[in-house]
């Protein structure tokens, strides 16, 4: 028997998955795995799987309306592997970073630990705030980097080239597909598919500019040691053949391809941003008018459209609220573990419906009325 109240049926979201990665998967994506069962267990060097990779690359090119000369590149390992790959294959001598949370800080740390690179320039901002790209104006670094969306805190930073000749690398892991972007403002816009694209992890994908591809080739030709798994030139060469260097998870690609098709069929990136904006307005509007809750990111323009972080005052135990909601099928809204705040963190990705965000907020109010979380 549950220790928590049972939510009335009209307050239970149609889909209770609000995690910030892995995120809600649409049923059609799972159907796509069954429909594509004939190619699971077949060679990724043969046309069937290569055509699937090609569909993903073409679909992403359309979704992001990539400029002429840009290419969609993919490989295995997720964004964490990409940070290491970038230290080997994209940063020539020095990088500069905006660090404003766990994940934007991790790339800066990887660059700092690479003994063949100069110490990076790191502009730090407190969690819950968002630095601006202009803070990197005039840097002598050859790569500048930040996260489009800081998944740990729910703060977003625009993709705008600073006044520098450096390549612009954007970690779009949780933002790609749900935040607006003009791709010409970035040289490498990289992401994993388990957030807005509602697939499984294990891949990284990137829209790369001609300048970035040229840099990769230059460093490769310099003779720098690059581990085979992290060789970006190998990733570029294989992507042009619609394949990956290592064997990919075909089920992940099937889910990803279906999501990209759904996105393009439902208004493209503009349509997806409209969905996340509606979700964000519902969540932040509720919190702004709440007696016990407030958005963690104080500046409205910096509040993420895809990851909402809501603080509760000292009279409420947010962890108890999360437990009660989990007992009622509302999942994965606990705060980022290392942030240690009395808050809920709520995914608002394109697959999530505004009606479910509204039901979630009403469910929180109901539980508070029942005394759940009261200290």
Automatic annotation (TrEMBL):
Naturally occurring in which organism (per UniProt): Corynebacterium glaucum
Pathways involved: Cofactor biosynthesis; pyridoxine 5'-phosphate biosynthesis; pyridoxine 5'-phosphate from D-erythrose 4-phosphate: step 3/5; Amino-acid biosynthesis; L-serine biosynthesis; L-serine from 3-phospho-D-glycerate: step 2/3
Domain named Aminotransferase class V: residues: 41-330
GO molecular function, one term: alanine-glyoxylate transaminase activity
Main location: cytoplasm
Cofactor needs: pyridoxal 5'-phosphate
In-chain residues carrying the UniProt-annotated modification N6-(pyridoxal phosphate)lysine: 195
Protein name: Phosphoserine aminotransferase
Its EC number(s): 2.6.1.52
BP GO annotations: glycine biosynthetic process, by transamination of glyoxylate; L-serine biosynthetic process; pyridoxine biosynthetic process
Gene this protein is translated from: serC
HAMAP family: SerC_aminotrans_5
Binding site residues for L-glutamate: 45
Catalysed reactions listed for this entry: O-phospho-L-serine + 2-oxoglutarate = 3-phosphooxypyruvate + L-glutamate; 4-(phosphooxy)-L-threonine + 2-oxoglutarate = (R)-3-hydroxy-2-oxo-4-phosphooxybutanoate + L-glutamate
Co-factor binding details: Binds 1 pyridoxal phosphate per subunit.
């Amino acid at each position: 028997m549950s220790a928590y109240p049972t939510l009335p049926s009209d307050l239970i979201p149609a889909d209770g998955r609000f995690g910030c990665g892995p995120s809600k998967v649409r049923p059609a994506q799972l159907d796509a795995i069954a429909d594509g069962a004939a190619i699971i267990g077949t060679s990724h060097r043969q046309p069937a799987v290569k055509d699937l990779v090609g569909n993903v690359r073409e679909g992403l090119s359309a979704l992001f309306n990539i400029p002429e000369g840009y290419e969609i590149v993919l490989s295995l390992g997720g964004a964490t592997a990409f940070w290491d790959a970038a230290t080997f294959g994209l940063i020539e001598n020095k990088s500069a970073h905006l660090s404003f949370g766990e994940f934007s800080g991790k790339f800066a740390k990887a660059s700092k630990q690479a003994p063949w690179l100069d110490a990076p320039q790191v502009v730090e901002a407190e969690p819950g705030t968002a630095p601006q790209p202009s803070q990197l104006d005039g840097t002598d670094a050859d790569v500048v980097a930040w996260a489009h969306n800081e998944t740990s805190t729910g703060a977003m930073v625009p993709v705008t080239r600073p006044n520098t000749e450096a390549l612009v690398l954007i970690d779009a892991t949780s933002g790609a597909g749900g935040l607006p972007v003009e791709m010409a403002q970035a040289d490498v816009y990289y992401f994993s598919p388990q957030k807005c694209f509602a697939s499984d992890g294990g891949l990284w994908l990137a829209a790369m500019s001609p300048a970035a591809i040229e840099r990769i080739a230059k460093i490769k030709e310099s003779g720098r040691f690059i581990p085979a798994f992290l060789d970006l030139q190998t990733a570029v060469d294989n992507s042009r053949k619609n394949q990956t260097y290592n064997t990919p998870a075909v089920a992940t690609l099937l889910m990803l391809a279906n999501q990209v098709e759904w996105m393009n069929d439902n208004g493209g990136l503009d349509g997806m941003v409209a969905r996340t904006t509606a979700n964000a307005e519902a969540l932040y509007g509720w919190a702004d008018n709440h007696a016990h809750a407030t958005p963690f990111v104080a500046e409205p323009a910096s509040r993420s459209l895809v990851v909402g972080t809501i603080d509760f005052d000292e009279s409420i135990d947010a962890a108890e609220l999360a437990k009660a909601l989990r007992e009622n099928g509302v999942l994965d809204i606990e705060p980022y573990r290392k942030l240690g705040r009395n808050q809920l963190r709520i995914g608002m990705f394109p697959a999530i419906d505004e009606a479910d965000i509204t039901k979630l907020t009403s469910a929180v109010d109901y539980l508070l009325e029942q005394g759940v979380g009261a200290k």
